[in-house]
Amino acid sequence: MRTDLKGTVAVVTGAGRGIGREIALHQARNGAKVAVLARTASEIDETVALIGKEGGGAISFPVDLVDRRAVEQVFDRVASELGSIDLLVNNHGSFRAFGPIWECDPEVWWQDVEINLRGTFNTSRVAAPAMLARGHGRIVNLVGGGTGNSFPHGSGYASSKAAIMRFTECLNDTTKKRGVLAFAVDPGLVRTAMTELQLYSEAGKTHMPNIQDLFDNGVNIPPSRAAALIVDVASGRFDPLAGRLLRGVDDRELLEQEMKEIVAQDGRALRFSGLEQQKL
Questions:
Q1: How many CA atoms lie within 13 A of 134 on its CB side?
Q2: I need a surface site. Which of 98, 156, 182, 203 has the fewest CB within 10 A?
Q3: Average pLDDT, consecutive stretches of 10 residues, N- to C-terminus, the chain (280 residues)
Q4: Which of 61, 157, 167, 238 is catalytic?
């Protein structure tokens, strides 16, 4: 079923390949004008070309999301060239530090955290005020492995994703009364350049052999699942679940039916257990 996003503007980070490219394509197929962001110009140009072949509208904007001033400049350009931003999707990600922390290069470990978390902070910080001024907007932050559970040999990535989940909750609680909603989306295990590094690098093969086992057992979520879910988020279908976690593997019809129960039980959120919460 096609959702009408005509007249809306979507910004998708990390959109030069993989999940981000699929998100950008789905937004354009449903009528949105798309700002395609990533560091590598050739990759986002290719995404824009694919959108153009399908009759959609998109512009590429190369940017390093860790550079706050560069982000501010790019978002000014997006607003000038495409219009006010209705949807921001923070899909960018880095996961290159594998293994126990004493074996990881500390600079690489911190780069994973900085790209994932600081990049999301920078884009949200720039996009939110304009959305608040208009009284409308949605921000989607992608999370993943380690968000709600331990990830011993992926501690940098896991720490950043857990932080992004909490950041999403805080952001949503700060802005929801003024019409700006934030969501966390876990796309599931998708075969991307990031997972290829886990599969074929020596550190990945040593410390994360379970990734290969998962793929061998058929666990490979199509990126279109998360992309279609985010189209529904952009349409407002899942607004009651703002501040909470949605998953690419979710049955969206069932999820819609269960929204009231999820909210009533304070589900899909980072929380202590009920007993521990009572002691605080």
A1: 14
A2: 203
A3: 87 97 98 98 98 98 98 98 98 95 96 97 98 98 94 95 98 98 93 76 81 76 96 98 97 98 96 66
A4: 157
